[in-house]
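Q: Hi! First time doing this. I have a protein sequence and I read that you can turn it into a structure. Is that right? Here it is:
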Amino acid sequence: WITARGLGLRNEWPDVVSFGEYIPVSAMGAAADHVVSFIRRLEDRWILAVVPRHVYRLSKQQPGQASQSPPRFNWADTRLALPEDAPTEWRCEFAGTKLECDANVSETCLSLSELLAVFPVSLLTSELK
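A: Yes, that's right. Below is the predicted 3D structure, encoded as structure tokens:
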């Protein structure tokens, strides 16, 4: 389903995926080494992809907890530092939820705890108005 939705977005915004500027996105915080993310931007359209890596150490699974239950990851204060001109409002293509940048920090950023609360990966879109 995740692959199908990603391919659907590629069909909806083919120019952004094919010709958009590639912008690597840095993470800050305790688990910054455990995420890879980038933006594709073309004119007023933005796509943000976020994928965790090396998550075993982030697992909150307790000893003796049933192995069938999905692990929970401790992202703590980790957040993505977006470019200064990035949108402040985003739509998660997997969950259909809206996300806003944290207004309490000076940088334009998104919390990994919020981004990856529903699915283990995230694909966000935004259009500047």
